[in-house]
Structure formats: structure tokens, C-alpha cells
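Regression test case RT-17, inverse folding.

Input:
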């Protein structure tokens, strides 16, 4: 449904409500609940699995209860709509129609569940029984979580119903997920289960009352803990006046400050000892929430006090870093920066830095150092934790935009941080509808049903850096975010995006967010006057899954299916990535549109039927070069000598490299012309002359033709661009697993063939039904097939 017609539909519902239809909706829903319960009784008598129906029933009953609360508390609901500026103007009418909206969606999920179970009872379909996550005994294994001897994909909601006991089964269950965690601290003085700086008192002792929020977590369910760095105690600020200078949005202090390090070192060691071996750490310790230190002028983070300057500690450490970088030669620095500093001790820099300096040596040096210092901070945190808890798994909730957007003034080196921690961590996002913010470009909607590319390119990069690491999305914004939300969001979108993310590497996810208490009221933080430092939270409730029974139910349904076919999903995503993009942090720093250009080539190759990957200097040096076939160098003008040498080494060892133009690799990090050229050596070197994307694509695919799957998938969506993702893997018995996802608006015509020309038989593994070799794949449809 188009957003511009949604409000009209709401007005119609208002009129229906005025005519007394509301009681009819509830009556109809209750009748369908009774029907479904009768079918479930019959199914159980025939030993058929009804786990999926149990979840639909649970959400149906919960949301009927929620609808009644919303009916009785329209003023409170209108107020919550009003905190989101997209809904604010219509908050009263939205609050008026919400209860019936929720009831109609309850009817819809019940109708689908009744239809599915009727089909199974009649023998029209045969579903694989659900393999549940074992919330008590799931373990972090090699590159995956393991539950009852099978790969497992735990799921839950991040920042869930703060104020509710972790043992409350109305909140922690199979339907909503049951991952225990140290929650996010979103009140100025709230310390709910987060490990934060207020745990340590001025006298050096720990606040045992606050510590109970951590030590009191029952040792029954798996979970994670988060180091929450927003605040800093007043006694620390009084002791160290510079403590907040150079702070960031979610790190409320200077990470270079010795006092801050002493404080956090003590907290990390103490809490690491207290929680060692606890189940609540099975999904790791999260070192930070969306860390970034944007340090360029006119960035949106400046208004949130991020990097409004730097401390003397940061400046002095920068001077030391420069001294080492320039081998103590101040003349070399002055020549590079066009300055006249007498010594490294006298070097000065203006922060935030002017974006007009992009590509200049001073720009490179600062941004490279900003990454160095943040990596060093997280290494400090991990070293402190591992000193007392050496087996502790760690990750960082990396902010995806800091990778796939162009700016590199944020101080986050994704490769270094992914190498550092024992798990991959992030909070990857997608947009299911055009953005609700007018300044956000929604051009993606012209070609695709949802915005998938940021999540995808992030996963392919992180999985390339850490191929043997568990991948945890600790705040998945697939359902809503500050950029988008849609009350009429599609269940097909939910299924597609969760499936795609899991296929690309996501091992566990905690969605944003569950904020209903069991009685239907919003959780404690969303009551009263909302005045959060983070303006996003106040408006997050409106239009979220907390008002969408169809969306909340579908999240669990798709996770049930993913867990039931977990071995197949792992097999599909274990495939090699024969085609790699060369990623250079040097070019990313120095080039204003490096990631924009990289993203264009990435999208052009994404739908060609094979997993994509990245290489860097470190990946070439540290990983087996034989697991990929070809490296593409694209729009990569600036590389260090070490990066250049790594590519030459790859060629020396027999690799294949495609270079898009003579400009790529032509400069060092300071814009100085490189005299050396790559030589073919023992490999294959293909020089193109300012090639466009279509030529690069054609050349690259020719290089990996032998690595393409045995099953040929032809797709036709009537457009001049592709929208169907396909993955194929050969199984031990000679059959093939084929996974298809349509990301387009239009139905695609699909035809499957074998390279050998041998006739095929195809089975839909989700229904056990036969499939023709030619069929239609609907928009956002997901199919998992067995091909023989």
C-alpha cells in the first residue's frame, strides 16, 4: 500500500469504528482463534508439529490485549505518535484507528495460519518440524552457534521491556526470543543491567547495589553483556576537567584520557571476573554501542557534542604518532602539510577538520590516526577483559553507515576492529519502504522492493575479513529505524530481509525493539515526559512492530524456518567467494566518493549467482589466496606502498587482477605519484582503459566462469537489471540446494537448467511439493529448493 493512501484508509477505519465495528473485529478474531485451536488439536493427534501455530496464537492473543489497552488509553497512544515527527500531525486520528488496525492484522495472521495448517492436514503440503533454539544450552561453536547438535540462529529484541524481570515468561519465550542481556542505558541515570562507569565509586570501591543488576542476571539463558559508555560520574569530571573533551555521541568521555582508562580498566576487570563463564556471556561482551568519532566540520554529530575539539591527551598522542610515522623528520611533515612547525611537540591541528582538506596529507594523517586511536582503545578494553577472562568472546556494535557511506572522519577501521574481536559485531539495517525523512534519498525504490545494499555490502566485507567468526547483529534495524517505518509493512519483506541477512552470515540478531509490557502498556522508559539524549528513542515506538502483529509474528516464523533449515543455510553460505573487490582504507580516506563508487560495482555484480567478497593488504597476507580467483581494483587511486606490494605478491603467487584504469594505484597515501607498476609475474594482469562498470562486469565474470554453479538460473523480470539472488551448492548425494530471493517489485520468470543438460526434478523444501523447471517468483518471495 502506498503511504499517501494509508491515512485515507485510517479515516475509513475511524468511520467504521464509529459505527460499532470494533466489537465485530474482536469477535471475528476470537472465532478464528477457536478454529485454529481445533485444527491444532487434530494436528497433534496426528503427531504433526504445530509450533508455528502456537506462535501465531500467542501473538494473536497478545495483540488483542494490546488493542484493548490502546483503545482505553488513546491519549497516551496519541502522545507516543506525537514524538515521531512523521506521525505528529495526525497523532490523534492514528491513535483512534490503531486498535482496529491491530485487530484486523490479528485476523490476517490467524487466517494464514488456518490455511497453512489445513493444507498440512489435507496432505497438500508437508512442513519440516520446527527446530527451536535451546535458550539454556546453545553454545558458541566454530563459526556458528550450536543448539542440540545443529547450527542455530538465536533471535530476540534488543533493549526489551526495561523494568521486567528476566524470568518473566510473558517477555522471554520462544515467540519473542529469550536472550538475556545487559540492557542499554537510555536514561541519564538509569543503569539497567549495563556495565557502565557508575559502577565504580570515588573511593575505589564498587557500587554493590548497581552491581546487582549485573550479578543478579539468572544463569539460565544464553545472552550478552554490553559496556555502556554514555555517561561519566561527576566525581571523575571534577577530578579531570578534560574528561569530556573529544567525547562522541555514545561515548561520553575522552578515550585518550588516563583517568578514563584507569576507571574502565578496573570496571572491566572486576565485571569480567564476576561474569566469567556465565551463560549471559555466550553471545559475547559488546565493547560499545555504535562507536564513531566524526571529526569533520558541519557533520550532524557536532550538535550532539561529538568531537567539538580534542583534548591535550589526544593532541599529544597524535604528535607521537606523527613522529613515528615520519621517522622523527619534522621537515618531511612540514613539506607534506605545507607548515613550519619547529618540532613534533609543537604540531597543532584544528578539529573538527575542514572537509576542503580531503585528499591532502593532513587530512589523511588525522583520519588514519583517528582510526588508530579508536582501535587502540578497544584493544585496551579487550586486553583488560582477557587478562581476567581469557575465553571471553567479544564484539563491537559497529555502526553500518560508517562503512558504506563515504565519510572516513569517524575513526572506525572496520577491518582492524573485526580482526581484533573474537566475533563479528554490528547493527546492520535495511529500509523496507522509502524513507520517512525528506532529505534521505530513496532512489533505490525505483529498482528494488527494499533497500538491501548497505546491509549486504557490510556483511560481505566483514565475512571476508573474519570468515571463521560468529556474526552477531545486536540491534537489527530491519523492522524500523529513525529513517523509516511503515505501519503497513509487508510480511514478505520481513521474510526476505531476515533470510538474506542470515544467508549472508548473520548468526544471531536482536531486533529493534520490543517495548510492550505484558499488560499492553509501553515499557517504563516510554511513560511520562520523554526527554532522551538520543532523540530517536522517543519516537521509536510509533509505527513499530509493537503496533504490528503481522510483523512481530513473521519475524518469529522466518526464524523458525531458518532454524529448521539451519544446516542447509550454513551449507549455502560456506561457499567460496571467487570474485573479490580490492578495498583500500587509504583510498576510502582520500576519495570523497570511494564507497559510492564501490557500491555501484558491487550492486552490478550482486545478482550474478555467486557470493562476493573483498580483499585488503591484510587479507592477502593472512589468508589462503587460493580461496578466491580474481581481484578487481576499481576507482582506487590512493594506496600505500604496502598495499601495492600485497597486490604484486598476489600476482607473484599466481593470482588474477583486473585494474579498471591507469589512475588506480597511481598515488601513495599523500598523493605522490607512484613510479612502480604492477607486473603480471606468475599471475594474470588485465589492464582496462577507464572501463565503465558494464565492461568491468563482463571481464570479471569471464574470469570466474569456471567457478559458476552447475545449476544455471535464468531470471526475467522484464527489466534491464536483475533482482533475483541465487545461491547453489552441491550436496554429498549429488543433488543441489538452490536458494532464490526476489528483491524486485515485479514477479520474475525463473528457469532452471543443468550445465550438463540432464533433465531435472525439483522439490520445494518448505512444502515438499514438486516444482516445474519454469515458474514465477513473486516480489520478495523466498524459495529453498532441492534439485536432482
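Golden output:
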Amino acid at each position: 500500500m502506498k503511504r499517501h493512501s494509508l491515512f485515507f484508509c485510517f479515516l475509513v477505519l475511524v468511520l467504521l469504528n464509529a459505527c460499532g465495528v470494533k466489537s465485530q473485529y474482536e469477535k471475528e478474531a476470537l472465532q478464528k482463534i477457536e478454529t485454529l485451536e481445533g485444527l491444532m488439536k487434530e494436528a497433534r493427534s496426528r503427531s504433526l508439529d504445530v509450533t508455528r501455530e502456537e506462535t501465531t496464537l500467542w501473538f494473536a492473543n497478545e495483540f488483542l490485549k494490546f488493542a484493548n489497552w490502546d483503545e482505553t488509553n488513546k491519549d497516551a497512544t496519541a502522545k507516543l505518535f506525537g514524538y515521531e515527527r512523521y506521525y505528529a500531525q495526525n497523532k490523534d486520528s492514528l491513535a483512534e484507528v490503531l486498535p482496529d488496525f491491530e485487530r484486523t492484522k490479528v485476523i490476517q495472521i490467524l487466517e494464514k495460519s488456518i490455511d497453512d495448517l489445513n493444507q498440512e492436514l489435507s496432505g497438500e503440503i508437508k512442513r519440516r518440524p520446527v527446530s527451536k533454539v535451546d535458550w539454556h544450552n546453545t553454545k558458541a561453536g566454530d563459526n556458528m552457534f550450536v543448539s542440540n547438535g545443529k547450527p542455530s540462529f538465536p533471535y530476540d529484541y534488543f533493549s526489551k521491556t526495561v523494568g521486567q524481570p528476566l524470568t518473566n515468561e510473558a517477555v522471554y519465550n520462544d515467540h519473542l526470543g529469550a536472550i538475556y542481556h545487559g540492557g542499554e542505558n537510555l536514561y541519564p541515570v538509569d543503569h539497567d543491567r549495563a556495565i557502565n562507569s557508575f559502577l565504580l565509586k570515588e573511593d575505589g570501591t564498587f557500587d554493590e547495589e548497581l552491581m546487582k543488576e549485573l550479578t543478579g542476571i539468572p544463569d539460565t539463558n544464553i545472552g550478552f553483556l554490553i559496556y555502556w559508555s554514555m555517561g561519566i560520574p561527576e566525581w571523575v569530571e571534577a577530578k579531570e576537567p578534560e574528561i569530556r573533551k573529544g567525547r562522541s555521541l555514545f561515548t561520553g568521555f575522552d578515550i585518550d584520557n588516563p583517568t578514563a582508562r584507569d576507571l574502565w580498566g578496573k570496571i572491566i576487570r572486576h565485571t569480567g571476573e564476576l561474569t566469567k563463564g556465565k551463560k549471559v556471556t555466550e553471545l559475547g561482551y559488546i565493547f560499545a554501542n555504535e562507536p564513531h568519532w566524526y571529526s569533520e566540520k558541519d557533520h550532524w554529530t557536532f550538535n550532539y557534542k561529538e568531537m567539538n575539539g580534542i583534548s591535550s591527551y589526544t593532541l599529544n598522542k597524535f604528535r607521537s604518532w606523527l613522529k613515528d610515522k615520519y621517522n622523527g623528520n619534522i621537515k618531511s611533515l612540514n613539506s607534506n602539510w605545507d607548515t613550519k612547525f619547529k618540532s613534533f611537540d609543537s604540531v597543532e591541528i584544528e578539529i573538527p577538520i575542514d572537509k576542503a582538506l580531503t585528499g591532502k596529507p593532513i587530512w589523511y594523517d588525522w583520519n588514519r590516526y583517528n582510526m588508530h586511536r579508536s582501535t587502540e582503545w578497544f584493544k585496551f578494553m579487550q586486553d583488560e577483559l582477557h587478562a581476567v577472562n581469557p575465553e571471553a568472546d567479544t564484539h563491537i556494535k559497529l555502526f553500518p553507515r560508517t562503512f558504506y557511506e563515504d565519510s572516513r572522519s569517524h575513526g572506525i577501521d572496520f577491518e582492524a576492529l573485526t580482526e581484533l574481536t573474537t566475533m563479528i559485531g554490528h547493527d546492520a539495517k535495511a529500509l523496507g519502504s522509502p524513507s520517512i525523512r525528506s532529505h534521505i534519498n530513496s532512489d533505490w525504490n525505483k529498482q528494488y522492493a527494499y533497500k538491501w545494499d548497505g546491509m549486504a555490502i557490510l556483511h560481505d566485507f566483514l565475512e571476508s575479513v573474519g570468515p571463521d567468526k560468529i556474526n552477531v547483529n545486536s540491534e537489527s534495524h530491519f523492522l524500523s529505524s529513525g529513517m523509516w517505518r511503515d505501519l503497513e509493512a509487508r510480511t514478505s519483506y520481513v521474510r526476505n530481509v531476515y533470510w538474506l541477512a542470515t544467508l549472508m552470515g548473520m548468526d544471531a540478531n536482536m531486533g529493534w525493539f520490543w517495548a510492550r509490557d505484558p499488560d499492553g502498556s509501553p515499557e517504563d522508559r516510554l511513560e511520562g515526559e520523554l526527554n532522551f539524549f538520543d532523540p530517536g528513542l522517543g519516537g521509536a515506538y510509533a509505527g513499530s512492530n509493537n503496533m504490528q502483529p503481522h510483523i512481530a509474528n513473521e519475524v518469529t516464523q522466518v526464524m523458525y524456518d531458518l532454524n529448521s533449515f539451519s544446516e542447509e543455510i550454513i551449507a549455502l553460505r560456506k561457499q567460496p567467494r571467487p570474485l573479490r573487490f580490492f578495498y583500500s582504507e587509504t583510498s576510502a580516506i582520500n576519495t570523497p566518493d570511494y564507497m559510492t563508487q564501490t557500491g555501484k560495482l558491487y550492486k552490478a555484480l550482486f545478482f550474478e549467482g555467486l557470493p562476493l567478497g573483498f580483499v585488503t593488504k591484510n587479507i592477502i597476507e593472512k589468508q589462503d589466496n587460493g580461496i578466491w580467483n580474481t581481484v578487481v581494483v576499481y576507482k582506487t587511486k590512493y594506496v600505500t606502498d604496502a598495499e601495492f606490494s600485497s597486490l604484486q605478491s598476489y600476482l607473484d603467487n599466481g593470482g588474477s587482477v583486473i585494474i579498471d584504469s591507469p589512475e588506480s594505484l597511481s598515488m601513495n597515501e599523500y598523493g605522490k605519484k607512484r613510479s612502480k607498476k604492477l607486473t603480471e609475474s606468475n599471475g594474470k594482469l588485465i589492464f582496462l582503459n577507464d572501463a565503465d562498470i558494464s565492461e568491468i562486469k563482463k571481464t570479471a565474470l569471464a574470469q570466474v566462469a569456471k567457478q559458476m554453479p552447475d545449476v544455471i538460473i535464468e531470471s526475467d523480470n522484464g527489466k534491464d537489471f536483475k533482482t533475483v539472488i541465487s545461491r547453489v551448492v552441491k550436496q554429498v548425494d549429488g543433488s543441489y540446494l538452490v536458494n532464490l530471493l526476489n528483491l524486485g517489485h515485479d514477479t520474475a520468470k525463473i528457469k532452471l537448467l543443468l550445465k550438463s543438460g540432464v533433465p531435472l526434478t525439483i522439490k520445494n523444501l518448505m512444502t515438499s511439493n514438486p516444482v516445474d523447471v519454469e515458474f514465477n517468483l513473486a516480489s520478495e518471495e523466498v524459495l529453498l529448493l532441492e534439485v536432482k
